[in-house]
Amino acid sequence: MYLWLKAFHILAVISWMATLLYLPRLMVYHCSAAAGSEQSETFKIMQRRLLRGIGTPAMLVSWALGLYLIGAGGYLGDGTYWLHGKLLLVILMSAVHFRLAWHVKQFASDQNRHSERYFRIINEVPAVIMVGIVILVVVKPF
User: Fold this and answer.
1) Contact criterion met (CB below 8 Å) for 67 and 12
2) What predicted TM-score, i.e. pTM, was given to this entire model?
């Protein structure tokens, strides 16, 4: 059963990452749409559905299964300092998720105050965090 749960954890993480990588890209394009325009309203729907329909459920499943796997896999002992680093990065990833959710609300009420450049930069943050997580999990450098 452990391997099945691990597989579903990985699938949830992939779905969560897809959201965190695509949502800021939608926001980049949304910045150039006039408030109240048909294009802007379409972006609002796309952002809301991506976040609520895929991103947040995937984040919750990733966390739930990840915490279960830590306990069931016996990763709470000595020599798991890599896990502490991974958990710190997952917390940062969650913070990015909640920041993007805040931006979705800002766009929904036509209150966005950030530029395309800001969203292009924030689009890179999840990818950098993901690299760190993968290295920690696979290489276990400490």
Assistant:
1) no
2) 0.94
